[in-house]
Amino acid sequence: EKGGYDYFMLKEIAEQPKAVADTLLGRIDASGSLTLDEVRIPASVLREVDKVVIVACGTAYHAGMIAKLAIEHWTRIPCETELASEFRYRDPILDQRTLVVAISQSGETMDTLMALRHAREQGARVLAICNTNGSTIPRESDAVLYTHAGPEVAVASTKAFLTQLVACYLVALYLGQVRGTKWGDEIEAVVRELSDIAAAVDTVLETMEPVRELARSLADKNTVLFLGRHVGYPVALEGALKLKELAYMHAEGFAAGELKHGPIALIEKDLPVVVVVPSPRGRSVLHDKIVSNIQEIRARGARTIVIAEEGDEAVVPYADHLIRIPATPTLLQPLVATVPLQVFACELATARGNEVDQPRNLAKSVTVE
Ligand code: F6R
């Protein structure tokens, strides 16, 4: 049942190109238009939406953080992403013009369910992004966009995360399409690139041996830090979460711009720091700022593990370890940048003798609040 892999997690990491392709299947037509018929919220209602609120937990929350950037960039609708467990306890502002997006692999996460119930009570429309057919969250939502990752057995979410991202991009682009906002060359190019993204994920998977080797060499470390900016920040948080839950190591993700506001005090000799570098094309300002961050932490002794786009030469002098990912449009980079972090955490867990598919204290679906 593990298809020749030692762990479900390894199998599920390997299934990501297919999961991504399956989630796109039939949702973009030949002309590059999105055909999300399952989003049964009428276009007239979607055109009136004046705020999007995303609620989710854990890894799904990280997908939601990335979705916020995509939705605001492509639609110009204000969007916020909130931890489902916090949401209903702060009396959030919601009405008929609010679109709430609830992201959940299992469809049974109690925190997310309670958040969406609260949202519907206030009159908001709820769109679920879910991987489990007929589960509670989609049943209680106004509409659902299913991710087609297939069953995810390992407790640590991998392929579900990538497909959640794909679904979030589709929702963002669809909102843009329905509302006619910024539906220009950039969006057409992104839709085209999305069609190629499964192949890019495959390319990353083929080059993971050095990442495994690196992970094994760090098995006796206590702490690993992760830095990123823009979409790379949630990727950093996701890398840290995977390491906590699988390797039981202290791991933290930071927005790289925050380093100087405190976390840089943590940097000491030989501390491994993973840095997710934005594309030098696109938002080149951010790229250059991150390169300076890498220089700063390296000057203080950090062991820099740099995830950077193919062809980005500026990082080479400051990378103790360089992990290459294919070039993608800025907003899509998490689809390729997350994969090495999954492999890294899985291999570190193995090296430390941990149970990869069933980490201690965790359950696959969290049905209590
Ligand atoms: C981390 C992980 C959890 C889940 C979270 C939400 O690897 O799996 O953080 O992402 O419990 O679960 P779902 O998506 O089922 O609502």
TrEMBL record:
Its EC number is 2.6.1.16. The keyword Disulfide bond does not apply. It catalyses: D-fructose 6-phosphate + L-glutamine = D-glucosamine 6-phosphate + L-glutamate. It comes from the Bacteria. GO terms for molecular function: glutamine-fructose-6-phosphate transaminase (isomerizing) activity. Keywords: Aminotransferase, Cytoplasm, Glutamine amidotransferase, Repeat, Transferase. Its main location: cytoplasm. It is found in: Cytoplasm. Homodimer. Catalyzes the first step in hexosamine metabolism, converting fructose-6P into glucosamine-6P using glutamine as a nitrogen source. This is Glutamine--fructose-6-phosphate aminotransferase [isomerizing]. It comes from Streptomyces yangpuensis.
